[in-house]
Model the fold of this input.
Amino acid sequence: MTDTLQKRLFNEQQSGAAFGYAADQSRAYVETIAERPPFPSEAAIDKARAAATPLPATGVGAEEAVRAMRETFEGACVNALGGRYFGFVTGGVLPAARAARLLSDMWDQNAPLFRTSPAAAIAEEIAEAWLCELFGFPEGTVAGFVSGSSLAIYCGLAAARWRLLERQGWDFNAKGLTGAPPIRVVSGRHAHGTVVKAVTLLGLGTDNIEWVDVDADGRIDVDAVPALDANTILLLQAGNVNGGGFDDFKTLCANAKDAGAWTHVDGAFGLWAAAARDYRHLTEGMENASSWSCDAHKTLNTPYDCGVVFCRDADAIRAALHQQGSYLETGMGRDGMYMTPELSRRARAFDVWAALLSLGRNGVDELVSLLCDRAAQFADEISAAGFDLAARPSFNQLMFACDSDEETVRVLRAVQAGGECWAAGADWRGRRVIRISVCSWATTREDITASVRAFAEAREKQ
Ligand SMILES: *Cc1c(COP(=O)(O)O)cnc(C)c1O
Done:
């Protein structure tokens, strides 16, 4: 029995039929991205749902399984790659990063230790150095490659919790939180939901957050920040997910540093401003923070999923995320597991490395500027079309609305159903708005003009 299965698997591997089919179809998909709707039709979604049948007793084999996968699911995919998808903050994919992902998927490296993959460890080391230089982080800053900002924020705050308690003579790893000295958490009211989630996961408790009011763009009111001390975690953001605002790092990070507080900067998409000449002023002073997080799968346009945590206090993050086992041979080189919560982990640094190498420093600058230029164009054209701009883009995000919430919702639904472009809604300062996040390198000027026209036409038909 087992020999029969093994023989079949070897045959499948050797014939290459499944892989050849997948490679051909992958290429065909990428070549037709521009013709695909940004969001799937109801019929395509129903077709995928119809695949919910019991698992057959006898398998269909590799080629048939991959064929069935494409036929079942391809039509129900969201097309965020094509230039007219503005939902959430969903990045497109650079050609180099896509190809690097494909190749490294074949390598299937496991990245916790130098011993489990020297290639992945070295790629991480180089990507870490390149990113720290692009963002202007201090010497000695370390990076952990995780699934996204959710986890990157968690890692930064885990390091903060460990260090703030250690300073008070409390060994968190041994004693836990029960009976621990209190940790204060200070945050702007518009902190991202994943920041709040990290606070809950880490046992710091949302009731303990000292909320600070924010301005029209979602930026912390500097004068409203309570006195900081060495038991405080200050949560800042580079790029509010709705308003796009960047906190005043120059003042806040410096104040926090003087007080001995730990500052974490959530820069999921906005940290990349630091890598662009025309936008660098937005992040000025953030190098004085203690930890930072960003997504490569947003602004850098690597495939999902890839987030990065940066920590200037290498000992703290290593202590917070420490693990051991006699079978784990460490210390042969970079052991990435000390900067992440997982042991086994895919080697995300290959995508980042190839993306950065393909663009170069100037290319990263141009990519960031391109997204921001398109957002500015969208803002100009949508307000010229008579919509009310609820938030001007300071970076790659903007929001607008119709005369009433009801009209805004109807227009958004009509555009979502129309297939010309896709955006999501949000609540902003007491009203319903339409959010636009320009996050794909593939969004052209024509895409923006056509998308604005789609909104204008949908409003006329109301
Ligand atoms: C997207 C986003 C997050 C969460 O990132 P994930 O990669 O989805 O986990 C956190 N903060 C901000 C500001 C974001 O835009």
About this structure: Residues 112 and 336 are 5 Å apart (CA to CA). The two ends are 65 Å apart (CA to CA). The pocket of pyridoxal-5'-phosphate is lined by residues 89, 148-150, 192, 194, 237, 239, 241, 266, 268-269, 295, 307 (CB under 6 Å).
